[in-house]
Amino acid sequence: MAGTLMQALDTTIANVALPYMRGSLSASQDQITWVLTSYIVAAAVMTAPVGWLAARFGKKNILLVSMMGFTVASMLCGAATDLTEIVVFRLLQGVFGAALAPLSQAVMIDLYPIEKRAQVMAIWGIGIMLGPILGPTLGGFLTDAYSWRWVFYVNVPFGIAATIGLWLVFKDTHRNDELKFDWSGFGFIALAMGALQLMLDRGNTQDWFGSTEIVIYAVLTGLGMFLFLVHMVTAEKPFLPRKMFRDRNFTSSSVVMFVVGAVLLASSALMPPYLQSLGGYTVLQTGLLLGPRGFGTIAAMLLVGKFGNKWDPRVLMSVGTACVSFSLWQMAQWTPSIAFNELLVVSIIQGFGFGMVFSPLNLVAFATLPGQFRTDGSAFANLVRNVGSAIGVSVSVMILTDSMQAIRADLTRFASPFNRGLAVNAESLYMNLQLPTGQQTLNGMIGVRAAIDAYANDFLAMAALSLVMFPLIWMMRRPSFTGAPRQEKQSLGESAPEGAVPKPAE
């Protein structure tokens, strides 16, 4: 759980520190974004082969190497003296951190019988969901109180403690020394994921398809995905088992996971600049204002952990989706003068909604999936969530930028001495419109109004996207969480063979 929380935190914890890192490392605005891009690309590429690595070398060995590598890379990131060093070290962070979340999920599912998995997935979900939510809060506090280097140093003591715990307690799992690696399948998906992440991250600064660089990334993404799908259909032993996708619950859950990743990280990425640039809050205040969302998530996780086996998980996910959609619709009505109480309530409702969706989603996804596919399934689910997060952030920034330009151009048409409505409703401003100070004041007002409406468009787009989850949720079958007796006792970290897969309740 420590490794999972650290890896999830590092997807957003560095965001609020980027302006400070830019000055310290003498980097341009375009260059400093590689601190985020390198981590995301490496994590996306290396998540895919986690299932094979665990089966070939054992879950304990991969977890230990990943934890130690992530901890050392975090320490190196904090000690970096120039842009090249921190980009390389963040790349290593992504490489070693990729296996932490999927392997921890697979191990926790293996450790407990199906009737206890609601509690287990609630605990695991707290770590994976609180990371992106609390990342800006913790990052803002550490940057404000100490320096940006501490957003990386904070991983070191927890990484050391987790490594020692794994070494002493965790027992190794079965290894298949004869397992062959599908280099073709890995090469195709690595090409697709790497090019996609680069396209999404660089697109906003390179004018999207008006840039040759982005067009090249798009072509490589399409080529990689096409070759991967053809290879998966035709290969005797493809990189990802084909039978895994015949499980309706797992396939539907993967699509919902994509949407959850997109909406969760996009909303987390939009709120800090909204509160800082429009609301006038400091970095620390922004972090504290985003904290209540985490309390809502914890409350939902605890509720699902206690009653998840008794209630229909589809109902729980529907309630959570409704909460997320409602909160995003409410956020679309916000202005910079939003009352603190309303901001607090909406944030808690949104966090509660994400928690109500995420924990039951992991229960349903793996309840009917055969045991031999769990590690691959967990890696694929985490990969889908990460890709959804990357696409969600890039699309939300694109909508924000385009909306702001369009709204500003539309409002500017009315900023004229010939507009009699302006003379009647804003007489003092109209009288000064011929002066530079009056023009600057009106220009600032137009900019603020355009930004408010652009953020509203983004929140409305995310609210509409979250509604897609409703039909997908009810395409799933309700699994049974009562009839899977354990066939043998397990020591911590040992994967016992699964018994018969419980028949889903009609």
From TrEMBL:
It comes from Rhizomicrobium electricum. Residues 484-506 are annotated as: Disordered. This is MDR family MFS transporter. Residues 1-481 form the Major facilitator superfamily (MFS) profile domain. It is a multi-pass membrane protein. The chain crosses the membrane at residues 32-55, 62-81, 87-109, 121-142, 148-169, 181-199, 214-234, 255-275, 281-303, 315-332, 344-367, 379-400, 459-476. It holds the Pfam family MFS_1. The keyword Transport applies. It is found in: Cell membrane. Gene3D superfamilies: MFS general substrate transporter like domains, Multidrug resistance protein D. Belongs to the major facilitator superfamily. EmrB family. Keywords: Cell membrane, Membrane, Transmembrane, Transmembrane helix, Transport.
